[in-house]
Amino acid sequence: MEKRTIVFIHGLWIHSSAWQPWIDFFGEHGYSSINPGWPGDSATVAESRANSSLIANRGVKEVADSYAKIIGSLSKPPIVIGHSFGGLLAQILLARGVAAAGVALDPAPMKGVWQLPLSALKASFPVLSNPGNLKKAVSLSFGQFKYGFANAVPNHEAQELYDEWTIPAPGRPLFQAATATFAGTETAVNTKNKTRGPLLITGGEKDHIAPPVLGRASVKKYDPSLVTEFKLFPDRGHSLVIDSGWKEVAQYSLEWLNKNGF
User: Fold this and answer.
1) Is 0.70 topped by the overall pTM?
2) Which residues lie closer than 8 Å to 163 by C-beta, 6 or more apart?
3) In Å, how far are 135, 165, 204 from 47, measured between CA atoms?
4) Which of 1, 111, 210, 260 has its CA 20 to 30 A from that of 60?
């Protein structure tokens, strides 16, 4: 049986090319994959850093619609695998019915997940502390990246990840997530869609940006009659998809997809 295409979706501050090891890994297991960037992203990390104004002021709905358009060009609904805000986008697309299955790796919280761990607030502070960042593209300093993404890996590895993969990110999605409890629907997921495919949500035990409590709370929002599972990765931080332990996460994702008929 021909395997479905995988669409990889990156989150804030990480370029889409960081998915290449995953594309190679799943390719070895018979999957074809694509890793489109967000609207405004350039083809490379260097170009994205040099053209940050193109990235600015992109909201969650615009990004989701962009991926939905790309998915619409495929012959059949794909598997979506997303990290961080990409994990939220994967859930939005799965709930829209344009994807067949989804893996949300340490996803940003959807509307209705009200928990706000202190570490998540601290990790978001570089953006949310300045309302002027709403329409801007914001870059992380190494210290901010180390705390938010790479707190569970050694400093030398954190520096390598920062240098190789980080790009500016639009501030708007963070503001949309932060205010979703009170207003706005862009981070809402149609959790009542009973025709959607299976969904895996993960959490890294040491994740500062998206602590496991957020992933567990998201699972509880879904209809219990549907396949919605949570997997905790011990001792892992938010960089779990790009750091030296990425293959553990990819292998688990592969086995979970196979278990569910994909």
Assistant:
1) yes
2) none
3) 20, 12, 30
4) 260
